[in-house]
Write a structure and sequence with these properties.
3 helices, about 150 residues, alpha+beta, globular, 7-stranded antiparallel beta sheet
């Protein structure tokens, strides 16, 4: 049986309220403003932030689709969901992960902790780790402008 013990585990602090951080993560229009994985623009978002709710992100001419389903939703605290990548025009194979995003903080400062699970090997974690670092830095720049 293949091991899937490889993970991406990353955290970042922000100088905004936890409410503002959480909203920037789940609000489709705000998400489109800052999140650009693989330098692709997010063009369509379906995000039913409830237990069992569906997630679907479509990027630039459907060259990347991310779909999933919420397993656990605790508003302002934690989101756990499946995270399925489909790259129809790419050599990278489609992949399925589980994502846990934890939020903490108060009215002045906040933090996000991301755990992405179910990688088949350490090498597979590297582009995702780099992507999350870039994404969280882009989120920080977005929040500083707001």
């Amino acid at each position: 049986m293949e091991s899937t013990d490889f993970t991406v585990d990353i955290s970042k602090e922000f100088s905004v309220s936890v409410e503002k951080l959480y909203d920037s993560w789940i609000n489709p229009e705000k998400l489109k403003s800052w999140w650009k994985p693989m330098h692709k623009n997010l063009i369509d978002v379906a995000n039913d932030v409830n237990d069992g709710g569906i997630i679907k992100y479509a990027f630039d001419d459907n060259t990347l689709i991310i779909e999933g389903k919420y397993i656990e939703v605790k508003k302002l605290e934690k989101l756990v969901y499946t995270w399925n990548w489909r790259l129809p025009n790419d050599e990278i194979k489609d992949s399925s992960y589980q994502l846990t995003v934890a939020f903490s903080g108060n009215d002045n400062t906040s933090a996000i902790h991301i755990l992405q699970e179910n990688f088949k090997d350490e090498e597979g974690t590297l582009p995702h780790r780099e992507g999350w670092i870039k994404g969280l830095n882009d989120l920080e720049k977005y929040l500083e402008r707001k």
